[in-house]
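Annex B.
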Amino acid sequence: MPTRVYLDWNATAPLRSEARAAMVAAFDLIGNPSSVHAEGREARRLVEEARAALASAVGALPRNVVFTSAGTEANALALSPGLKGASGGPVQRLLVSAVEHASVLAGGRFQADAVGQIRVTRSGAVDLGHLKDLLGSGPPALVSVMAANNETGALQPIAEAARIVHEAGGLLHVDAIQALGKIPFNIKAIDADLATFSAHKIGGPKGVGALVVAEGLTGLEPVLRGGGQELGRRAGTENVAGIAGFGAAVKAALEALPEDAERMTTLRDHLENDLRAIAGATIFSQDVARLPNTTLFTAPGLKAETAVIGFDLEGIAVSSGSACSSGKVQPSHVLSAMGFDPATAQGAVRLSLGWSTGPEDINRALEAWRKLGNTLLKG
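Cysteine desulfurase: predicted structure tokens.
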């Protein structure tokens, strides 16, 4: 039986060998990282080494990295009323782009009537003109715009958004979960105030995330209160093994990033050229900068649920969008926000690549698409 092909890396990446080894070593430690004895200090060492690795990777100070249970919790922690930057008053409302992850669209701890949405273009890029208008019509705002979309792969103009937000006296949060390890990301270079990350998207373990804040940010209120871990910003004993795996994955991903990005771009372009040739597929966000590993496509008459099942039966794992909502029979909110009709939004299939994806995997996917196209598409 042929080996299965995994093309759903944006949902989760396989565990890297470096992360596995770091976790296995951490499992042998018995100390609580908050304990002052030798066993506790050894556990603390692993946590702080991982903290330093992530901080170095994204241009932050280690003291400004807060480990959480996942990217979703990190987003909830970031979206907090009352945040203050190095200058300016506390934010009183939240503005989010219409293509954000569900954990951001939920609004964090802002009241529903204090949350507004920023339009995006047909290509999926945030409408900076609309952002300016929204910022000019109310009190200081926290703005949340993702670095890279999890469905289309579209990259957002984060640095320009940061300039607009700061000129209006606001703060910028960036969900960088899909960006880390796939494109260069530096919180200082883009002038973001907060950024969120997740271990399992880069080959670390599931169940570990992080919020990184800019120096001078104040007013961050913990979601979980109790023992005062993470400098009082997130209570609960740290997941030492998971955090160690996160740190190891960060180091491995950053070391391989240039080579991996170039290789995945070549594979993605080959995939998309043949998808178009086989059945006239439409590639979403193809006219803007995208992640090197992500293709979201559709074709006339395609039903995503049926296509995903068809690919699966051919031994290929793909997705119909975000893994957090792909089990629901509903159009992609991302494509709906981009202005596509419900039928189109419900017919999109995502293929996302990773560090071990090779030409043979792409060829297998294209072979499956040739078979499926004959039965799934309208004549």
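The first strand starts at residue 5 and ends at 6. The domain at 5-14+257-376 is CATH 3.90.1150.10 (Aspartate Aminotransferase, domain 1). Further annotation is deferred to the next reporting cycle.
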